[in-house]
Amino acid sequence: MTNSPFSIDIAESPETRIQRLISENPVIIFSRSSCFMCHVMKTLLSSIGVHPMVIELEEDEIGVLTAQNSEGAPAVFIGGTRIGGLESLIALHLSDHLVPRLVEVGALLV
Asked: What is the pTM of this model?
């Protein structure tokens, strides 16, 4: 198995896969397919200069994400910490805390 986020280990559980992806990517969005909120999240981050890893989850994996926290998908993680969904990301941005957080985790150079 390689260290690529796209590598697949069929023996890897959904829980392990999600945790691995969170730890390997400074900014990652877990989404459902055709999720407009995910599109808005990607657009916001791109406008700042960050291009997050976006993973579309299968239904069983969304259940894992929901079990880890009360919210399901979409969910954005920055530096391994769950920020939340679209509302939380926008609130972080409007409070001027998003860019410093992205710089802190190395996802954005200033």
From this structure: 0.81
